[in-house]
Design a protein that fits this description.
This protein folds into two domains: 77 residues, Nucleic acid-binding proteins (OB fold (Dihydrolipoamide Acetyltransferase, E2P)); 120 residues, de novo design (two linked rop proteins), CATH 1.20.1440. The chain contains seven helices and eight strands. Helix 2 packs antiparallel against helix 3 and helix 4 packs across helix 7. The longest helix is centred in the C-terminal third of the chain and has 18 residues. The radius of gyration is 20 Å and the shape is elongated. It binds zinc ion. Zinc ion binds next to strand 7 and helix 5.
Length: 241
């Protein structure tokens, strides 16, 4: 057993035995890990505050064969303005659940962690509609996992110009001439631009735009139909959104 320092966000917490807690943490160094915090349910235990979902910081832990044992935690962000607000907690919990479901232990999950962190900060800021936040988070998550709609070229002929319809069947855009032959939904250039930005932007710059309600509705409509056709997993936290 070696002592390691891990940086990450607590995704979920559950009780174990009489006084302990079990944490799932998305870490920069080791992907998603399971860690035990011994005695963390005793009132004066120093690990009490760190054992909550959304806590971001560094964790000193002993690495065992299949799990970690936390000895010390240094939380730098509790996302307090998020956890005090019911609607924000609902959306934030959805983000945590998605990250938990899709991340893997021992794999490089730095992008997913960065996306989760920036997304929680964006929720906390109160500057964005929750519908837009969910759209951005979901689409960028699909990009991280390498399975997302092609929004830069016509999925039929490969042309880059006059992209004007979205085809669910073809996982992406159709140009003007192909759209007259294939089934697609015509979308505005601002919705297309928003999708292109989300797909190509680096994660730190992701939450730097808002959309008018018409564009936002169209973006959600397109992504909803994509979710319906290609994302079969049902998240528990989605019921609260
Ligand atoms: Zn085409």
């Amino acid at each position: 057993m070696g002592l390691v320092t891990l940086t990450g966000i607590v995704l979920s917490v559950s009780d174990v035995g009489e006084f302990d807690r079990r944490l799932v943490i998305l870490t920069k160094e080791s992907g998603r890990i399971t860690a035990f915090a011994k005695g963390a349910r005793r009132p004066n235990n120093p690990l009490v505050a760190a054992c909550s979902p959304f806590c971001f910081g560094t964790f000193e832990a002993f690495e065992g064969r299949s799990s970690y044992h936390i000895s010390k935690a240094n939380i730098s962000n509790y996302f307090r303005d998020l956890v005090m607000d019911y609607d924000r907690v609902c959306l934030g919990s959805y983000f945590l659940e998605v990250a938990d479901f899709l991340s893997v232990e021992g794999v490089d999950e730095r992008n997913r962690l960065a996306l989760l962190y920036q997304s929680l900060k964006a929720v906390e800021s109160g500057k964005f509609s929750h519908r837009l936040l969910k759209d951005i988070y979901d689409l960028k998550t699909w990009v991280i996992d390498g399975e997302y709609p092609n929004v830069f070229t016509c999925t039929c002929c490969g042309k880059k110009e006059n992209l004007e319809a979205f085809s669910i069947k073809r996982h992406g855009m159709l140009c003007k001439s192909c759209a007259s032959k294939e089934l697609g939904t015509t979308i505005s250039s601002s919705t297309l631009y928003a999708m292109q930005f989300i797909v190509s932007s680096n994660i730190e710059k992701l939450y730097t735009f808002v959309l008018n309600s018409e564009t936002e509705e169209e973006l959600t409509r397109i992504l909803d139909s994509y979710r319906l056709n290609y994302r079969s997993h049902k998240y528990k936290s989605e019921d609260f959104l």
